[in-house]
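Tip: read the tokens left to right.
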């Protein structure tokens, strides 16, 4: 059975979704939606074999016909309202991160997913070869007990990045800054290996673009986990370039260091093993990684086979709740 797919929001990330969909057997791009209709027309001309329909808003597209899957690539604050509209009509939803910008939104999404449709979240870095290698190394057990970790995201976002849109850099529409947008994937990976923390303590600042944005450009977090494990997390968009993300896990008998598609294992006795892994094709900006095709393909495979999807709402809940605790601890008010 051929599945019909539509993309809502035709900005930069939409091209990555479109290319991944075109590479799937049994899936047809049938529609592109954007409030700036010329952007939808541009993508439709490039993808979908010239047969995809173009719409100016989601309601118009849904009234014309329900696709099997709707990819939501819109600004953050629109993710949940649009997902709910699709789910109400029985469709499946594949969402760009973050899945929500408030606790109420996340609860609504969980409720809708439990009764209607299917939801997948685009945490594509979980599919990186380097991440799979770290999983394998930890499962082998040669390094002993995992004691803690650290993660660093040092990227660059200038004023033009925020001034080119009317939703970035605002609490109400973006939900935050360097944490919820740029470093959520790194936080997700750190928590993938360390689990649910008992303690979350953090601080935030806006050093670089004060007066331009409302949100943080720096966040530092201290995490304590059961078993006396600890982690430190640092993210900024005030650096001069997009440096490779670094994650390091400290184990009983050594450490694992992940940097892009390179994984380095250092044993306490001095031995070092380096795995230089082959990345998939990167579409769009390099820091988006190469996992989109695998992530999106896995979602369609789960729909076809009727099996659970690895990036469902339950799988991202810990990441979302920890992120909420970080914002709450730094602002003194509930952001999620």
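Filled-in amino acids:
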């Amino acid at each position: 059975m051929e599945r019909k797919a539509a993309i809502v929001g035709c900005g930069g990330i939409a091209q990555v979704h479109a290319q991944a969909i075109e590479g799937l057997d049994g899936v047809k791009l049938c529609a592109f939606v954007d409030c700036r209709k010329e952007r939808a027309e541009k993508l439709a001309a490039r993808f979908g074999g010239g047969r995809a329909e173009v719409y100016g808003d989601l309601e118009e597209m849904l009234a014309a016909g329900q696709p099997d899957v709707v990819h939501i690539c819109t600004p953050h604050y629109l993710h949940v309202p649009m997902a709910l509209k699709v789910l109400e009509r029985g469709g499946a939803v594949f969402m760009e991160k973050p899945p929500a910008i408030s606790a109420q939104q996340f609860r609504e999404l969980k409720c809708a997913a439990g009764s209607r449709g299917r939801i997948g979240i685009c945490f594509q870095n979980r599919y990186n070869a380097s991440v799979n290698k770290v999983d394998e190394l930890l499962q082998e057990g040669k390094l002993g007990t995992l004691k803690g970790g650290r993660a660093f995201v040092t990227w660059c976002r200038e004023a033009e990045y925020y001034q080119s849109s009317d939703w970035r850099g605002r609490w109400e529409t973006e939900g935050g800054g360097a944490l919820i947008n740029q470093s959520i994937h790194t936080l997700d990976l750190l928590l993938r290996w360390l689990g649910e923390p008992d303690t979350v303590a953090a601080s935030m600042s806006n050093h670089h673009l004060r007066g331009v944005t409302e949100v943080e450009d720096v966040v530092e977090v201290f995490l304590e986990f059961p078993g006396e494990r600890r982690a430190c997390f640092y993210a900024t968009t005030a650096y001069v370039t997009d440096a490779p993300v670094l994650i390091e896990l400290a184990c009983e008998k050594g450490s694992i260091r992940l940097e892009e598609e390179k994984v380095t294992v250092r044993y306490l006795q001095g031995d070092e093993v380096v795995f230089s892994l082959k990345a998939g094709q990167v579409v769009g900006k390099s820091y988006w990684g190469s996992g989109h095709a695998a992530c999106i393909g896995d979602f369609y495979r789960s729909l076809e086979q009727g099996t659970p999807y690895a990036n469902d709402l339950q799988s991202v809940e810990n990441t979302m709740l920890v992120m909420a605790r970080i914002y709450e601890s730094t602002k003194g008010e509930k952001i999620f």
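The two ends are 39 Å apart (CA to CA). The mean pLDDT is 92.
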